[in-house]
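Incident log entry.

Two folding requests arrived from the same account within the same minute. Monitoring flagged them as a possible duplicate submission, but the sequences differ. Recording both here for audit purposes.

Request one:
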Amino acid sequence: MNRRMARILALATLAVLLPQCKLATNENPVPSIDAFVANWSSSVNRVYLNDGSGSFTGSDATSDTHNSYDVALGDLDEDGDLDAFVANQGQVNRVYLNDGSGSFIGSDATSDTHNSFDVALGDLDGDGDLDAFIANCSSQINRVYLNDGSGSFIGSDATTDAHESYGVALGDLDGK
């Protein structure tokens, strides 16, 4: 990417992010950064809420246990808060919808089971909501999960080739 394209991309990114930024005041403090942790070995995924000073209080995301490998956060149901899409190995991938207070309701993304190791969120079909791209290993085909805007997904193979995929990142690589 040349410098001009890099500047255009940076300005486009600012145009998207600036309307979401708020001025910090006593009435409107800067939100603290919390954490959603994907846990392995049939453990419960955890949410850690930040009190604003860097101290965290942990709680179970839900009571379900999975072999979770990765998590991506985004507003999956378009209600203004961060939800979680979790990639699980040997189990269905899960969606955790946030109620706005840091409490989550978990559901299966779809009914298909894969050895998923990584997830990235982006608007893959151009309809304005966040979809998921899943990297699968064990010679399984990577998957795309298209969101209907409410946090419900339809899964399909991304391509026909199978690999040992362990990571995925999304971006406009061909400039189209």
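Request two (distinct sequence, not a duplicate):
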Amino acid sequence: MNTEGNGKQMRGRPKIDDLLKRLSSNKETERPSPRATDPDEVPAEPSPPPPEPAPAPPLSDPDFNPPPIDITATEMTDEIEELDELIEIETPALPTSATIDIDAGDMVSSLTEIYRPADTGEEHGSGRKESFEDLLVSKQIVTAKELIQAQAIVSNSPGTRLSDVLIERGADELELLKILAETWSLSFETLDLEQAPDEIFDGTMLQRLGSAFCKEYEVLPVRVSDGRVVLGTSRPDDVFMIDEARLRLKARGVRTVVIPGSQIRAALDLLGEEEQEHDTDVESILTDIEEDDVRLEEADDDEVDLEREAAESPVIRYVNYIIQTAVKEGASDIHIEPGDKSLVVRYRIDGVLFEAMRPPNKMAAAITSRLKIMANLDISERRIPQDGRIRCNVQGRKLDLRVSTLPTSYGEKTVMRILDTKNINVSLDDLGFDEDTLTTWKTQITQPHGIVLVTGPTGSGKTTTLYASMRQMDKVTKNVSTVEDPVEYHMDGITQTQVHEKIGMTFSGALRALLRQDPDVIMLGEIRDMDTAGIAIQAALTGHLVLSTLHTNDAPSAVTRLVNIGIEPFLIGAAVNGVLAQRLVRRVCSNCAKQAEHTEDMCEFLEMQGIDLTSVMAGEGCEKCRQLGYSGRLGIYELLVIDDTIRDVIARNPNVTEFRRMCCDRGMHTLRADGFAKVRDGLTTPEEVLRVTEAMG
């Protein structure tokens, strides 16, 4: 037995014990510096080693299992470096022939066992915990092949993260992050983006972190609970970022939870780029207007300084009030209509126009000029129509307003279409399709080639359906491109092209250029003329899937419309795969819905349609629905699938009445039939269905 070695091990043991105690208490203490020695001093006999403390078991004891410690990576690194210094300091005091039995490997192994995440939920000795990658494959979030491909991308792209790459390549973000949370033994949470911003995150803590920091690292202070800041992030493995966030927050403690990065980005977008200009006090606005602070000079219209008038504070605030109220009420359009003695502001809510307010008539020119300034239009030109766009933040939401001015007898009428990204980000499952129609439509949009058309009048939801359909597509393996006039909503992973007819960038010209970009799927905003229709037909026949819209009343009319444009019937039959006609009906308010009461004639009509009167619902009217009985809208649909029999009929160029009758005989579900099916389900009223399908008989 090497007694000398044992003695040296005993002398080193107090230092190590002291370090272990410091690690377990997670408190730093100053390391005592070694005593300076005189080189001429005769070394004294080494003192006998102190007795080993009884409670401290040897490091090699298999039962030695200190409790887990929750310390940061930076503190851990400092402790390991200090331990290395301790060993170096002790070494000169030992005889040259002595060796230390605790090598670096043993020490790192011991410290690794000491430092592990708290509350891992794993029993000691229960076996190796599955890795993040193993769990992804075992729970079928991704396939082994997809994982290997993503890992290859990460290895070739410094700074990229495996989870980000997998999500970009189509992995389910929620399920993937749930696995990541499980791997790190953290809670998984989601954000309710329907709530007000101050209910989604803690504004005070967000100011400490800074919005730039939060956007860069996808981190968000959700709330303060029991004196600790709950920090949401999609990157729980970035310990240095969490340390930096802890320092910035200056909080007593931080608890980390996993939140999807897309929801964090959406929550931060609610802040906008700058302080909200439109968050104004309505009462103060109305007070200013009643005090008649805006006065137009008694002069000819050409001599009035409209730019100065538009810059007056009451005008700015009143325009803000008009826009803010429209967004709050859920309007899709704002109409500002000058008259002989009055100025009327109307909102289109759930497809129906309502008068909202009557500002002083003398404010008409100033309000129009203010809107022109916001849309970068020429305020001095009032003789011709103008179109523009306003990008603004209203109530924490980023909006685009499409502005159109039109000269009238009493001044310029202004109409603004509110384009809210929140309204377009819906899936096909939420649009009101019945199960059979939805399955058939999904089949149509996954075809390798052909034309799929969506028809209906303006405001019937055609763009929403097309955007939801493109969102269903695999944008990783397919090149999806659009030609639109204008580009209403921006979508990630899709090439969107704006039409500019004044400079020759027409639908047909843009489509020709797009066909040289190796597209798989093309979305045309509208087929308006023979040139565009002809190119779309050729694209469909040469292996491309083309999605587009037409303005027709029903699905069979789309075929005759293409014939009227100038396309040969046999080409239509060969290229068109399907036509979807749609309308939007108002939904019965769920807050005040009750069994409806109808006239005797309506009851007889509903019974003829096979509808049980007890299932028909109607809204009484409440504050939530503005006493209208309706809240929100849903679609009714008519889907015509072109099969071989119908192709033969199309080639003979039938009239629309005959063709529609033949389509119904082959099982086409009409708009009115789909509408009454929703009446039977209590979703809308018979009056709504008859209102939007009245022209169809």
